[in-house]
Amino acid sequence: MRSGTVGLTIFFVLAAPFFSSRARACSIALRSEHTIDPAQVGVDQTPPQLEQPAVAELHTNESVGGGCQPKCGHDHSARLTNLATDDRTPVDRIGYRVTLVAGEAPDLGTGRTGAVLAGTDGLALFWDGDDDFDFTVVVIAIDEAGNESAPRTVHITNGAGGCSVGHRRASDGFALAVLALALARGWRASRRART
């Protein structure tokens, strides 16, 4: 086997885990906008009951292509759970309005401009900014009649640095490539010394 072929083989074997997951398509699940049902307006006068929402997950969304392609969506995302219930509106038809009240979270949103419906896994929030974030939002639940819950404040912070999901950093792939080339070059040099 030629030394060049061995070097390439080593490179591809070692680099495969870093590049195999990067072929995934970029997709962000957008929730449906909440709508008011005119037949419920005036009939239902009881607002939804919103307990204290909990931050179930925090994610830092890294570059899709290891620095060569843009990241998928916003820099960060969070999922809120422990959401509202209502006497007439099913939980999957309750809308949520989120407003930033303290701190910085550029482009904070839910993927829509108005109130949105939560998914079965909770309410997703997205924002841009540094890895260190610390901000507070107010969440209000809205039923199909337009009745609004009492506002609840939710503090979102990365705490101990948050977590990183999705894709490995470009520097990891670069370091692996350098290691593979160094190994191939060393193997080639030792082979030349023997001949």
SSE layout and pairing:
Blueprint: H1 3-19, E1 54-61, E2 76-81, E3 95-103, E4 116-117, E5 123-127, E6 134-142, E7 152-157, E8 164-165, H2 170-194
Parallel strand pairs: 1-8
Antiparallel strand pairs: 1-2, 2-5, 3-4, 3-6, 6-7
Helix pairs in contact: 1-2
Total of DSSP H or I helical runs spanning 4+ residues: 2
Q: Can you summarize the main beta sheet?
A: 4 strands, mixed
Strand order of the largest sheet: 5-2-1-8
What number is the mean pLDDT? 76
Q: Termini separation (Å)? A: 15 Å
Strand content: 15-25%
- Shape descriptor: elongated
Indicate the percent of residues in helices: 10-25%
Strand tally, please?
Answer: 8
Would you state the CATH class of the largest domain?
Mainly Beta
Structural class by secondary-structure content: alpha+beta
Description:
The chain is α+β, with helices and mostly antiparallel strands and 195 residues long. 22% of the residues lie in helices and 24% in strands. The chain contains 2 helices and 8 strands, in the order αββββββββα. The strands form 2 sheets. The chain has a 4-stranded mixed beta sheet with strand order 5-2-1-8, with no helix packed on it. A 4-stranded antiparallel beta sheet has the order 4-3-6-7, with no helix packed on it. It is elongated. The two termini are 15 Å apart.
